[in-house]
Design a protein that fits this description.
Blueprint lengths: L2 H20 L29 E4 L13 H6 L5 E4 L16 H19 L4 E6 L5 H8 L6 E7 L21 H8 L1 H5 L5 H7 L9 E6 L19 E5 H4 L7 H6 L2 H11 L15
Parallel strand pairs: 1-2, 1-3, 3-4, 4-5, 5-6
Helix pairs in contact: 3-4
Length: about 280
């Protein structure tokens, strides 16, 4: 990679962060008032009848992953909720490290709680990184398809990752794979060819009744190759961020943490009847 590209990426992330901070409230979409993020008294409006459950990524938690996107959705009148999952004993703050199938059971319980509190028949899910992968297990094996309308994955590792080829080196270090599986099961589950991914993707990527959107960036350095993030199915919309805005240099973290262009496209997926064109100017929307 050229040195100037390495320099531009963090500069772009800083620029997007600054824009998020200074975009005036007047530019927000007109929407019904929201009762707040993780406020169980929030009742979905007629225009946004489904609560949105946000699913964080590996090493993240229910707060830090969504400091920008949760308010973005709140401003648009959604009831927004987020959960912590995949905790390991003695490891505070950093979640999504436990076995992914067990994390999916935590999501199952959380979605049921949100639906009961809001009175909604179905929820929508938006996940970043592992959060864009794990819910697929819930949808496929834990009855989630009957309770979810739309699932948006932002930089998900749907078919695993090679970490730019580093995972190919594991067989050359005896015991490394076993140590990884024992210490951080979720990391082992996300490696290309893992038993978890083999089970998850057998028989097809998607299940009927759920609308899928995947938003990826070609600068992703964590989920590689980036096109492995895309799903195949009859109700799938795969989006490359740079097709929407060629100037967007967001990598794996930035696309989920602060990229308003990705946020705009995710919002389109949640409300396709009122979707508007996503482009570079969407950073101001």
């Amino acid at each position: 990679m050229l040195p100037w590209k390495r320099l531009l990426r963090p500069l772009t992330a800083l620029l997007l962060t600054a824009v998020v901070a200074v975009v005036p409230a007047a530019t927000a979409h007109a929407a019904a008032p929201s009762s707040g993020w993780n406020d169980y008294s929030c009742k979905p409006s007629a225009s946004h009848p489904r609560p949105v459950v946000l699913v964080h990524g590996t090493f993240a938690n229910s707060i830090d992953n969504w400091l920008a996107f949760a308010p973005y959705l709140e401003d648009r009148g959604y009831c927004v909720f987020s959960l912590d999952y995949g905790q390991l004993p003695g490891v505070p703050l950093f979640n999504a490290l436990g076995p992914i199938d067990k994390s999916a059971e935590q999501l199952q319980t959380f979605v049921d709680k949100v639906l009961t509190a809001t009175g909604a028949a179905k929820a929508d899910l938006v996940g970043h990184s592992q959060g864009g992968l794990m819910p697929r297990y819930y949808l496929k094996f834990l009855g989630g398809a009957a309770k979810v309308n739309t699932f948006v994955g932002i930089a998900p590792d749907n078919h695993g990752t090679t970490l730019d080829g580093l995972t190919n080196l594991l067989p050359y270090f005896p015991g490394a794979e076993d140590l990884l599986s024992a210490a951080t099961p979720a990391l082992a589950d996300q490696i290309v060819g893992s038993a978890f991914l083999t089970k998850l993707n057998a028989g097809g990527d998607t299940v009927p009744g759920v609308h899928y959107t995947v938003i990826a960036t070609k600068y992703d350095e964590v989920v590689t190759p980036y096109r492995s993030q895309f799903l195949t199915g009859s109700d799938v919309h795969n989006v490359l961020l740079q097709d929407l805005c060629p100037l967007d240099l967001s990598e794996h973290a930035a696309i989920g943490l602060l990229d308003r262009i990705a946020f705009h496209e995710a919002a389109n997926a949640l409300d396709p009847a009122h979707a508007t064109t996503t482009n570079c100017a969407s950073v101001f929307s």
